[in-house]
Every structure is written in structure tokens, then in C-alpha cells.
Request: fold
Amino acid sequence: MRLSEHRYKTISSIAGPLLRVRDIFNARTGEVVTIVTPDEKKLDGEVLEIVEDTVLIQVFAETRGLDIEKSTVIFTDRFRDALLSPDIIGRIFNGSFKPIDDLPMFAPEKKSPITGFAINPAARAKPEEFIETGISVIDGLNTLVKGQKLPVFSCSGLPSKEVVASILKNSRLVSSPDEPSGNRTTSESKEFIIVFSALGLTFRDYSYYLSVLKNMKSRFIAFVNMADEPAIERILTPRFALTTAEYLAFEKGMDVLVVITDMTNYCDALREISTAREELPGRRGYPGFMYSDLASLYERAGRIRGIKGSLTMIPVVTMPEDDITHPIPDLTGYITEGQIVLSRELHQKGIFPPIDVLPSLSRLMQKGIGAGHTREDHRKVAHGLYKYYAKGRDLRKLESIIGKEGMPQKDRVLLDFAEEFEQEFIHQGLSRRSVNETLDRGISLMKQFNLNL
Amino acid sequence: MNHEWSIRIPRPYRKKISPREPLITGQRAIDFLFSIAKGGIAIFPGGFGTGKTILEQSIAKFADVDIVVYVGCGERGNEMAEMIEEFELLNDPWTQSRLMKRTILVINTSNMPVAAREASIYTAVTIAEYYRDMGYHVILLADSISRWAEALREISSSLEEMPGEEGYPTYLSSRLSGFIERAGVVETYSGTVGSLTMVLSVSPPGGDFTEPVTQSCLRTTGTFLMLDTSLAHKRHFPAINWFQSYSLYADELSGHYKEHVAPEWETAQVRCREILQKEEALREVVEIVGIEGIQDEDRLMLHTAERLRTEFLSQNAYTEDAFSSLEQTFSAIKGILDFYNNAEKQLKDGVPISEILVEKKPVHAKQKTSEGS
Ligand SMILES: Nc1ncnc2c1ncn2[C@@H]1O[C@H](COP(=O)(O)OP(=O)(O)OP(=O)(O)O)[C@@H](O)[C@H]1O
Ligand SMILES: [Mg+2]
Reply:
């Protein structure tokens, strides 16, 4: 600790978002710095690396045109904190945590470093409480539970924002529908607090989301970095959002749902920094530390034993070139607890939400369904639907070769079932279905084709 | 009895002995087709969601060993929370005592420091050796060794060392084999025999097995279980690809199975492989002409192969079927093969195929209605 600011005018070089400053005394990694330009503009930055007395600074703003000789770098002796208070609910901020809703900054109750603290795995409570999203494919076959991180894998041009909006609008915490209705007083639509983090969003998408958020019953907080704002700020934005979410979940006992979109823009910002540092690039130019970095965001979801709240996370990933093996979806899939995969083919068939059941998965589903969670027959129904649909899908290849007429009756039934499953079960437009309706619909579909459970 | 030992230094023993005994995992696909030896090494690479963690944890629950050391290396916190809770509740099938009583967890989740991640597998192996030295059979499971390698890469890169393939330090392979070499059956200095088996999962980027970590592991492993994304998408678990996987311990261990389980163990194995292989070849034909277009013998074979896949090689970790003793495993395979032999005879005797398939199929007795955990 130096207990004071230090000012330097010794910037030696600029490379993209990085500055090198010489002759620095006692800086610390992660320390917040302010760069003051000759015309008194203030840029925000952070110490990335210290080699002897030279310091590498990451600037969260446009550095082009920065005057090396006349600008001052102030080392603030502070780490980057998020300001916290229950009053934050309902507010909208930019990617650097400045209000953009024409209201003054709230009075903070406390500050917390935006890197958060890794939750001790032994202190975690295992996620098992069912969240009803109102979407049949999710509730029925890829069930989401409180404290889970479940990303949406999309492709460019697919309606990921409509899918996310539908989840936001319709998600409810419900107690088991098996319970006699007398006990269901607490179940009545417990609402989430939504924390929305936009990364590199176009104005059009942003307006869409904002109108969705504003028309919801749930209360929300938004952190917005737009497409034309510095890419590098995207490193900070989700961290402000998550620090806020953790505070509300683990200190104020709220159930928080965090939506981050689009993680692909986040990763591109990471790559930009890594390139500017002249690091040896990993796969497709993305840095070798991307797994750890993504984990430092995604792993902040969860529940803690003895604490009421929860942090559930839905990141959106747009898969470059529709490629699920691209490092961004790949590393995401390695960290998150499953994935909801959107499909071009279903979208072209006019099916909404166009969720492809086969590559989609919720790894925490088994814990959150069945008697006491959803319904006793949930596993059986899910298993049957999945099995018959997978078989039907498999048979489509054969159908395209030998034609449906050449196929045995049994196979033709499965083909028809797959078709009907897409139209009647996956497709639901904007309607909301309770998990009961979802399961009943699945059962009657199988009955219709004489397929036994 | 406490003492300190530097985790980077292998603990000494009098001599190494070559593995002779199988390590029973309770997984039919492994125990029957790709067995692991006590003191041996198994690796299973697989893309995300192919079932590495479930397989690691199943083996941790059911293996016939005295001590289990499990390293959660750079993976999920929720997964670990679940495991801790479950191991406090469940019993191991061999001694019926709480799983946690024989288990040691070393945890470094993906959001914890990479330096600790790099060290975690050494901490674990040293603990494992400590018990081995007392003459116990110990298993070390690590999920996933790729996260260790990546930690090594991050550290190496921050030291500005010369990078090798895909940015990994050039010493990746030698470090890895140095670690893996700590497995084995040994005669300890107190004259007892102890074993340390390693079961390591690998998370290849993009599910591409040509990457350096998988390749380095391949050089030293005895059992190689390739987890297949397409099987996982079909919800065939454990998603062990039966063509690409192998076990180098098969010869050493076959005597044991013949003596302790069934004399026909090996012949059944050969038969099982044969059917699966023929199915593969036939499937291409069926894709062109359709199932009606092939001969009855072949239809029967396809039917048998399907039973092998769905009733024998698959094992749902959330059901009673999660653990299968060697006897159960053998009687399951015998049941299917006997059915096949009989049905072949009936076909020759002129019984129509439709009748055989309807009658003899013990209508998915295995498919339990409740998959309840
Ligand atoms: N033996 C099994 N029985 C039933 N389901 C299984 C089995 N193995 C895997 N699964 C299913 O597959 C999902 C993914 O498994 P798991 O978490 O073990 O994958 P993984 O290979 O460890 O993935 P990652 O590399 O991302 O950690 C599980 O949540 C479960 O739904
Ligand atoms: Mg795993």
C-alpha cells in the first residue's frame, strides 16, 4: 500500500488497448489507473503486468490519437470495485458502470472487487430446484435449475434474442406441481431479479431487449456495452454485472437470473488484448488463458449452503461459422452445465423456438426433476420422447435414399412422430406452457403414434 | 504417523511388479471389453458432454479398491458439491461403508488459481502413494488432466519459455509421463504389495484427438477409452467407442477372468466383438437397401447387435444398473449370446424371423421405467 496517488508522464509506447509506462515505483497488478489527456479527457485503465519498473496498462477506452508525451498516468492505489446497494435494482448503466438512465448514481452501501471470490466448492449447495421457463423443449427435456449456468448456442441470423426474451418473460420458480394445491401458496410466480449484461450489442438489438425488460413484471438491472463502444470495455461489463448479481443473490437472498449476450464479442475482446500483448495465439488466434478467463465468469453461478439466494446464468454464444467446435462454444461447453443449441434447419421450417434436442443438454436436469420437483413421470416421458425423436431423425437419412414407401411400417411411424414432435412439441410460438402441459403434450404425442412409454 | 513429503518427488518402493489383477469398475463396457489393471493406467479423452465426469465418478464409487483419491482439476464447482454430498450418503458396494470413508478429494475448480491447479495432481498422487506404501490398493482419478496441462501452459507462457506444439511447453510430454509413471504395483519397503491405478480424463479442444495432451497420454496408457460425441448425442452412455478403444492389459488379465468368473469369458468377448463389427459393415448395406432388403440371418444379427449396444454396453448411471458385478456382467452377455445361438438354430429350422424376434426378445427387461437417482 502506498496510500496515495502516483502520477507519471512516462508513457513509452502504445499498442492497441495497451500502454507501456516506464520508471514506475511500486505499482500493483490489477491497480486502477486513470489516463488524463492534454485536453483533460480521462481514460480508464488497469495494470496488467509489471516487469521491473515498466508497467503494462490495459486501457478500457479508445487509445488511438493518444498523446504519449503530454498525457499523465495516475496510479490510484485502488482496485476496481463495483458499488453496491439494493437501490441498484431498476437502473441502467454503461459498460463502465456509469448510469445512462438520466438518474444520479445511487448511494452505495458497500464496495466489492469485480473479480469476485471463488466459491469454495465444499460450501456450495447442489443445484436442484426446478425453474419453469415455459418452453417445452427446455422444461421437458433440458430442464434448467436454480444456480445452473446454461448457455444458448446460436448461429448468426437465428432468433437467439427472441428465445432469450421468452425465457426472461416466462421463467418462474415453482414448487412441485405434485403437491396438493393447498401447499402451493409460496409457489405462485416467485419472480427473478434479472441482471442483463449486453456486450457489443447493436442499437436495434439493445432496443429490443430494453423493451422486453421494461414490459416485464420482474425487476431488472442492465449493464450495456454497445457495438460502437470500446471493445475492451467488454472485459469489465460482465464483471460489474456478476458482482452486482452475487451481491443481490448471496447477501440479499434474491434469486437472480443473469443474461450475458453476446459472449462471442467478449472473447473477441480477449483476443484483441492478447494480440496486443504479442502473446503466442492459441487455437484460431484466441489466447491460451481463455478457458480460465471464461471460467472466472461462468463459475460465478451457483448456490451457497445456508444462504437463500441463487445465481443462475444464461450466456448467449453465437457460434462463428455455425461451428460448435470453434473455441468459443467449445470452451464454453467445457465449463457450463449443458447447452441449448439452436438449429438453422428448424428455424427454416418455421419452428419457434428452434431448439435442436439432440445436441442440447442440461447436465443438472436429473437433480431437478421427478417427484418433489416436477412430476413423477418426468424422467420416463423425457426418455421416451428423446429416444423416439432421435430414432426418427436417424431414419430421415434412410428416407432420403430409399424413400418412405420402401421403409417398414415401424420406421414410417417414427418418421411421422419426429415430424409431429417438431411441430407440436418443440414449436410453441410465443405461448407459455406449464411443465404439466409440456409433459401431458409429450404423453399424448406418444399415444397418438402408439409408442409406449 | 504424519510426515511431510515433497509432492514432486515420487515416493520410493522396493520394486515394481507388473500388473496381474483386474480393477473392477462395475462398468460392463470396461470390465468386459477394455479392462483396467490394478496398478495400470487408463485414459479417456472425449469432447464436452461425452460423460467423462460421470464415468470418473462412477468408477470412484464402484471400484474394488481400498482408497480413492479424486482430483477435480480445473472443472466445475457444482459438480464437486454434488459429489461431496453424494459420497456422504452412498455406500461402496464392496464393504457397504460410506463412500466418503475411503475417499480423498483434492479440488481446484476452474475459477481457482492456475498455479494450484498445476500442483493439485501432484498433491493427489503423493497422497495416493502414501496409502500405496501401506499396502493398499489405491486408485487416483483426475478430471481432467487437460486442465493441468493448460495450467502448465499458462505458467510456462508467463515465464516466457519457448513454446512447443499448440503453445504447450516442450517438456509437456516428459512431465506427463513422469507423473503417469508414478502408477504401478509395487513391493513396498515394508514388504507388502500395494498398487496405484490412474484413471485420467482428457478434454481435447474441439473433440480433436490429434492434440498434444491426448497424444502424450496415448504413449503411456494401458487402457484407452475413446468417448464418442455421436454416441453421447444418441444418449448411449458410457459413450465408449467400441472400435477405437483398446486395453493392453487384456492378455495379462484374461487368466484371471477365466479362473474367477467364467471359463468362456474370452470366447464370449471374441463373439461380442465379432457381432459389433459385422453390424458396422451391414449397416452401410441397410442404409442403401433398407432393413427389408437383407437376409434373415443378417436381420437377426443386427437385432443382436442392437441388444448388445442397448442392454449390455450402455449403462445408465442414474439407475440401479449403474454398477454391474463381474458375475452380472457375464450373465448379461451370456443371455444375449445364448439368445443369438438359439435363434440362429431356429432360423435354420425354418421358424420365421418375425416370430423369433417377437417371442424371444425378453422385452427390454433392463429398461427400467424409473431412472430415479
Ligand atoms: N452413464 C451415464 N448415464 C446416464 N447419463 C449419462 C451418463 N454419462 C453421461 N451422462 C449424461 O451426459 C451428461 C454429461 O456428462 P459429463 O458431465 O460426465 O460430461 P463430461 O465429459 O465430463 O463433460 P465436460 O468435459 O464438459 O466436463 C451428464 O450430465 C448426463 O446427462
Ligand atoms: Mg466433466
Summary: Chain B touches chain A through 48 residues (CB under 8 Å). DSSP finds 13 helices and eleven strands in chain B. Confidence is low (pLDDT under 50) at residues 359-373 of chain B. The domain at 265-349 of chain B is CATH 1.10.1140.10 (Bovine Mitochondrial F1-ATPase, ATP Synthase Beta Chain; Chain D, domain3).
